[in-house]
Amino acid sequence: MKSLAKVLFEIVVFITVLSLVACAAPTGVSQAPAGKTVKTYKTLVVGFAQIGAESGWRDGETQSIKETAAKLGVDLKFSDAQQKQENQIKALRAFIAQKVDVIGIPPVVTTGFETVLQEAKDAGIPVIFIDRKADVPEDLYATFIGSDFVLEGKNAAIELGKQVDEKANIVELEGTVGAGPAIDRKKGFDDEIAANHKDIKVLESQSGDFNLAKGKEVMQSFLKKYPGQIQAVYAHNDEMALGAIQAIEEAGLKPGVDIKIVSIDGEKAIFEAMVAGKANVTVECNPLLGPQFFEAALKLANGETVDKWIKSNEGIFRQDTAAAELPKRVY
């Protein structure tokens, strides 16, 4: 039978061990996987495969990524794919070869990424989808940071309905064929129109490839094909809306008046158009995701888990508030 002194000694030792374990893992401190040094922003290496520079919105995202990396001291490996999927895939493989800690990518289209993402997984490199997702199994990426594109499309439909008093013939300028935002923004818009706006008819929907020049070209063809029949335009992004505005003006009509303009993104240029009375509503899609991206990247590099979907904060802006909001826009 143990003596009282020995029992008390064992209790003291047990309590001391528990205290040491607790001190070794304080709440809120990153714990690296066994055998790995805890990463800080200044030792973090991140590869980012940007789509390109098809819009002011995209430029705003690029600026946010680069400026945040510089501010935090992150070693950023940046690649511009110039709107080509093959360039993004090459960039991903280069990042894998360089053994970066985390990879970020807004996929130019939703398909064709499974093989290279499997390669990243096999190399133990977490992948973050930012502003767009690819159609791949969930175990091939760590998280998606960005917007609810379906909801954006739905909100655009609701706003357009208000602009035309729930009755109009409209045309739709879609984004890049196969791109996640284009697919989801069309779905959200079309489903809302079909369910709740029976007197709004979509005359035609065509891709403007998310850029101003193509948006203008498609709008010109719509105006020729449906003379005097179009009351509103729904554009999947502001750049195409700006192109549509040019086409409408060149046709001798007043954008924002004769033909209402509802778009998505929230670029500074569309606010200027609203102030001028040439556009009506923009549904915001925030590109300034740098801080959220690098916060998630650091956690993943240290073996922490993050939410599968990290949503960005966004709003809806109309012509009557555009002048007050314009000075705040940074992209």
Computed Rg? 25 Å
What's the structural domain tally?
2
- Sheet having the most strands: 6 strands, parallel
Number of helical segments?
A: 11
The CATH architecture term of the largest domain is 3-Layer(aba) Sandwich
Contiguous runs where pLDDT drops below 50 for at least 5 residues: 1-33
CATH superfamily assignment of the largest domain? Response regulator
- State the name of the first-level CATH class of the largest domain: Alpha Beta
Structural class of the secondary elements?
A: alpha/beta
The average pLDDT value, as a whole number, equals 91
What's the helical proportion of residues? 40-55%
Strand content: 15-25%
Summarize the structure in short.
Helices cover 44% and strands 18% of the residues. The protein has helices spanning 4-24, 56-72, 85-98, 114-122, 149-163, 180-196, 212-225, 238-250, 268-275, 290-301, 322-325, and strands at residues 45-50, 75-80, 102-105, 127-130, 143-146, 168-174, 200-207, 232-235, 260-265, 281-284, 309-311, 316-318.
